[in-house]
């Protein structure tokens, strides 16, 4: 195939996606180490660049995208930024549906990348936005829906790329993998990839303590943006889970701040939450255990949120 001008242009940004480092975080005074896959180093700043690049490439291969196509997705923000980035580089129009609660920074990044943004009131969590996207697609044949919450490509890509990178980066035994879930793609895909090589590894879902739906609790407000959107996503069903860990919003914020102040890592709140749970698992598994987690996105996405207002954990405090 002769590459078009836009596919040539896209090469630059596509070459920056994936192959992120996996680094040890050595915690004192806990005397514990966890390994962190640095997904915040993807070009738009989050793990979602992988899915955005992959779903658009797949749609192109299948002939589902034309020059007048509109890529439409409902997202808490990071997938929207990633799709807007890919759309800009490949010359596709992108339209993002986002809940009013998503951070201002993500909205601005999406607009800056030239995509259209539509805000909705998430009365039924993400479900509201997904239903809205389906209705819009039924009325406009130009619309292509990546469907991050149910598209098996989301998990499959993590199984075949992200998990394989981790297995190459940590060639010895892996004892545990911990991640939160938004769509469930990272947890299901990386979980499957690690389990296939290390069947004894414990795959653990991190859940906000205020929205521990896997434990059968009712979802409530929390401050860990990007995870636990108020429903159990279909992709999570294929995650080979061995258990769940609840992390309070205040614990996630405190750890995110610690990652920045003690390790110099400017990451978002779900990264802090993942590390809280990963440390707990490392303590449970004992000395020498190798536990891996993800640092999902960058701190600069959260200037207007609790993360940058937060000073110390407040006993008994609850998310607004
Ligand atoms: C900041 C952040 N953390 C974690 C996740 C969860 O990833 P996944 O959708 O693969 O479950 C997301 C998803 O958008 C996210 O934006």
Overall pLDDT confidence: 91
Strand percent estimate:
15-25%
Report the helical percentage: 25-40%
CATH topology-level fold name of the largest domain: Rossmann fold
Reported for the largest beta sheet, the result is:
6 strands, mixed
The number of helical runs is 10
Count of individual beta strands: 10
At CATH level 2, the architecture of the largest domain is 3-Layer(aba) Sandwich
Low-confidence stretches: none
What compounds sit in this structure? pyridoxal-5'-phosphate
N-to-C order of helices and strands: HEEHEHEHEHEHEHEEHHEH
Describe this structure in words.
The chain is an alpha/beta fold. The chain has two domains: about 190 residues, 3-Layer(aba) Sandwich (Rossmann fold); about 100 residues, Rossmann fold. It is about 40% helix and about 15% strand. The strands form two sheets. The chain has a six-stranded mixed sheet. A four-stranded parallel sheet has the order 5-4-3-6, sandwiched between helices. Helix 2 crosses helix 3 and helix 8 crosses helix 9. The site of pyridoxal-5'-phosphate has 20 residues, from helix 3 and helix 7.
């Amino acid at each position: 195939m002769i590459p078009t001008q836009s596919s040539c242009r896209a090469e630059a940004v596509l070459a920056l996606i994936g192959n992120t480092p996996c680094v040890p975080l050595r915690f004192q005074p806990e005397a514990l180490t966890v390994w962190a896959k640095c997904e915040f180093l993807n070009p738009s700043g989050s793990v979602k660049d992988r899915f955005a690049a992959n779903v658009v490439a797949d749609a192109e291969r299948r002939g589902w995208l034309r020059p007048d196509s509109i890529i439409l997705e409902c997202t808490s923000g990071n997938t929207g930024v990633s799709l807007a980035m890919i759309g800009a580089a490949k010359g596709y129009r992108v339209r993002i549906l986002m809940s009013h609660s998503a951070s201002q920074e993500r909205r601005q990044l999406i607009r800056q990348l030239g995509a259209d943004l539509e805000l909705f009131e998430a009365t039924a969590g993400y479900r509201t936005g997904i239903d809205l996207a389906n209705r819009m697609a039924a009325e406009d044949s130009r619309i292509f829906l990546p469907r991050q919450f149910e598209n098996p490509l989301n998990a499959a890509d993590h199984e075949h790329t992200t998990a394989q990178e981790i297995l190459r980066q940590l060639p010895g035994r892996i004892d545990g993998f911990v991640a939160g879930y938004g769509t469930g793609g990272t947890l299901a895909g990386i979980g499957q990839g690690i389990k296939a090589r290390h069947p004894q590894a414990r795959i653990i879902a991190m859940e906000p303590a205020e929205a521990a739906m896997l434990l059968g609790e009712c979802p409530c407000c929390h401050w860990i943006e990007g995870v636990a959107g108020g429903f159990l996503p279909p992709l999570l069903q294929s995650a080979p889970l061995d258990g769940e860990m609840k992390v309070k919003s205040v614990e996630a914020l405190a750890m995110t701040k610690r990652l920045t102040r003690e390790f110099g890592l400017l990451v978002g709140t779900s990264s802090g939450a993942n590390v809280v749970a990963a440390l707990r698992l490392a303590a449970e598994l004992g000395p020498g255990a190798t536990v891996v987690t993800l640092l999902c996105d960058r701190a600069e996405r959260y200037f207007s949120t609790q993360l940058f207002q937060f000073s110390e954990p407040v006993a008994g405090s609850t998310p607004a």
